[in-house]
Amino acid sequence: MTLRVTNTLTGEKEAFEPRDPDSVLLYYCGLTTSDPPHLGHARGWVHVDVMARWLDYLGYDVHHVENFTDVNEKIVARVGEDGDSEADVARHYVRQVIDDMRSLNLGRAEVYPRVSEHVPEIIDLVERLVESGHAYEANGSVYFDVTSFEDYGKLSNQSVEDIESQGADTEGEKRHPADFALWKAGGVDPEDIAEHQHPEAAPAEEACQTAQTWDSPWGEGRPGWHIECSAMSMTHLDESIDIHVGGQDLVFPHHENEVAQSEAATGEQFAKYWLHVRLLETEEEKMSSSLGNYFSVSDAVEEFGPDVLRTFLLSTAYTSRATYSDETVSEAEERWDRLSRGYERAAEACDDVDAHAKVTDETLRDAVDDARSTFEAAMNDDFNTREAMTALLNLTAAVNTHVDGRDEYDYRGLRRAVETFEELGGDILGLSFGEDGGGDVSLAGDVVDLVLTVREQERDAGNYERADELRDELEALGVEVQDTDDGPTYRI
């Protein structure tokens, strides 16, 4: 089947045809490094991660770039709380983003460019726009002239006349209210950070003195937000790319302005496919740092673990509404438990002495084939991770039926089931099937066996309360104990 994607630019689901049939240029709008990353950010990360993994599975050479916006007024507003300067605050949160990405088992992008290291490329791009008549200088700032680009509004399906002012119009500098800044003269005004400041941050006047500025043909200043992604994408990919992904809230003005300034500068289509991830909601509001209704990635990983979180985030397709709640996370916990148990039962039965070369269960083998074909069809249908995960859950049911229904196992069928879990669930969805999670697992197993031996001794001595306490303490550490006629067994 051909991969089809929902393209915001056309409003249609289209067959995916990259410019180069052998490779894909993929850009993802990353974070402004001013706040702790939360699950709303993780929703985009994980879905883009799976997109890149699937494109690789299809045989493409994937060039995946994701930026860090480390120059922004919101970052200046955190000076004194998370660092002594704008650069320090940005560095603090870039470190946290990287740590959180690793904790969620995200594959590494090809590169993570930062705005602060691409100011020369930004200035060059702004100069191209000024020279071509698409931008103009006013009192040291440079603005993009939206009326100079005939297709302005095509991504968000708006007309220039319907668009209200974008940003402040200092002393009437802008020719049209919808014109937007490519370069901002001077530093950061304390008024620009007032609404973003925290009580623990430095006074606005003091914080703004740490804001970064650069020399330019128009004087000292700072790059505008929208021009940054165009410059970084062109630097590390090309002037025309295949896929540009971002959050749904970025369609306008950010992505609309990226289209205009990029295509005005190059005369080429900037991105062929625009994919937008719907926002994560909680209590019917988007999860947002500014609203304070977020659950940080680091706290969520500590509480639930990466597999439950990836299961939660991928249980809804990227184009569908997603809600964070106790109920939806509990559903993900149950779903991941079913998947991991299914994998473990398949692996254990495959390695059992009762797994035979000449035992055949066509129902199991057909279920493996169905799971793979259904998974592939779902992923080719606009990266539908929800249906892809359902395919693996169906495979779990087939494995359970096989293991529970017979004394002798179909080795080949079980081996194919194990490989399907590992390849599709592990390599594509990024779940940790068959992984030990780090550490010395054999030593951990020896320690658990020792505790269970002590627990049995307590039970034999009639100290049932203490035995129950040991079991509860093990379960609190993630060790599930099951008492059987042959003695206790456990699962980490």
TrEMBL record:
Cofactor binding remark: Binds 1 zinc ion per subunit.
UniProt binding sites for Zn(2+): C29, C229, H254, E258
Record flagged with keyword Magnesium: no
This protein's record includes keyword Coiled coil: no
Compartment(s) where it occurs, according to its Swiss-Prot or TrEMBL record: Cytoplasm
GO cellular component, one term: cytoplasm
Coiled coil: none
CDD domains: CysRS_core
Motif ('KMSKS' region): 286-290
GO molecular function, one term: zinc ion binding
Catalytic activity: tRNA(Cys) + L-cysteine + ATP = L-cysteinyl-tRNA(Cys) + AMP + diphosphate
Keywords: Aminoacyl-tRNA synthetase, ATP-binding, Cytoplasm, Ligase, Metal-binding, Nucleotide-binding, Protein biosynthesis, Zinc
Domain Cysteinyl-tRNA synthetase class Ia DALR: 374-441
EC number: 6.1.1.16
Organism superkingdom: Archaea
GO BP annotations listed: cysteinyl-tRNA aminoacylation
InterPro entries, A to Z: Cys-tRNA-ligase, Cys-tRNA-synt_Ia_DALR, Cys-tRNA/MSH_ligase, CysS_C, Rossmann-like_a/b/a_fold, tRNA-synt_1_cat_dom, tRNAsynth_Ia_anticodon-bd
One Pfam entry name: tRNA-synt_1e
Entry binding sites for ATP: S289
Motif 'HIGH' region per UniProt: ranges: 31-41
Cofactor: Zn(2+)
PANTHER family linked: CYSTEINE--TRNA LIGASE, CYTOPLASMIC, CYSTEINYL-TRNA SYNTHETASE
Family: Belongs to the class-I aminoacyl-tRNA synthetase family.
Protein name, per record: Cysteine--tRNA ligase
Record lineage: Archaea, Methanobacteriati, Methanobacteriota, Stenosarchaea group, Halobacteria
